[in-house]
Write a structure and sequence with these properties.
mainly alpha
Length: 303
């Protein structure tokens, strides 16, 4: 039951993440990626900090501080820089589909680190899902913004950061708590982004913000940072990084809907085909793992 709650939390987190792509795409015309990340995770930290203190959640132990800060820099500083910069060049839907390489990266990195085996079934799933992403990104290029491939590559680099965070943070979250770990790591990333934004003068356009821009920034902080990444940490505490990463395939659905509604971005057949192939590939790649796991548990229970 605990693992089911973890998967459901990951799905909700990814759904919120998809809407955050749309909100970020809306803001990139007003301020640069550093400032967007500063607002998103700065507001997120300000919301999580009092909640952590009121609940009395465990903070990471002193021995884990360096790793927690390092992962915070990776996930809450480098990740949003790549994520936000990618949406300067590509659409919300394409960005979400590029981020859907996350479960594939998690599977491959997990296999490389020896945390899970990459079977033939998983390999076929990787090929199918990657082909789905390729269909969505490489067809109908005339409908894509000029230089969209730059955004696609930046988003895939962001997915790599997310995959590493998911694998490396799991033991730290278990030794502390989802909110405590997320708050400390988010603080490290937000501080880095705020310092970089101040140095580059990235906050200057804020003086011209109207109500829609402030609402988008507040939405990113409350739902795109505080709630999204609390749910992500909650999920990582209860299930495997790969199963958490699978939920990111929900991202393109919500991002496409938000992009179509808020940004008037087109919904085309190749996006739908890419989403279907990604779902099919991830299903192929992960059901084998579950069956092997079940078989192993069954064998271990025999006298």
């Amino acid at each position: 039951m605990s693992e089911i709650f973890g998967v459901l939390a990951a799905v909700l987190s990814s759904a919120l993440g998809g809407t955050s792509i749309g909100a970020t795409r809306y803001l990139v015309g007003s301020i640069d990626p550093l400032a967007i990340g500063s607002f998103r995770f700065g507001f997120g930290f300000l919301l999580l900090m009092p909640l952590t203190l009121l609940r009395g959640d465990r903070w990471p132990a002193r021995a884990d501080w360096a790793a927690t800060v390092g992962l915070g820099m990776l996930f809450f500083a480098l990740f949003p820089i790549l994520f936000n910069a990618s949406l300067i060049y590509t659409t919300a839907a394409r960005g979400a589909l590029a981020l859907s390489t996350l479960p594939l990266l998690s599977l491959m990195i997990g296999a490389a680190l020896g945390s899970e085996a990459l079977t033939w079934r998983k390999s076929i799933g990787v090929v199918v899902a990657t082909s789905g992403v390729a269909v969505a990104l490489l067809t109908n290029l005339s409908a894509a913004p000029s230089g969209a491939w730059r955004g696609d590559l930046l988003m895939m680099a962001a997915a790599l950061c997310m995959a590493l965070y998911g694998i490396w943070s799991k033991p730290l979250i278990r030794r502390s708590s989802p909110i405590g770990f997320t708050t400390m790591s988010m603080a490290a990333g937000a501080l880095c982004l705020i310092l970089l934004s101040s140095f580059r003068g990235s906050f200057a356009p804020v003086a011209d913000f109207a109500a829609p821009q402030w609402l988008a920034a507040l939405y990113l902080g409350a739902f795109g940072a505080a709630l999204t990444f609390y749910l992500w940490a909650f999920a990582l505490e209860r299930t495997t990084p790969t199963r958490v990463a699978i939920s990111v395939t929900v991202n393109p659905i919500t991002a496409s809907l938000v992009g179509a509604w808020l940004l008037k971005e087109p919904l085309r057949w190749n996006l739908a085909a890419g989403i279907v192939a990604v779902f099919a590939g991830i299903w192929l790649a992960t059901t084998a793992g579950r069956r092997v796991e079940a078989a192993g548990l069954s064998a271990s229970s025999r006298p």
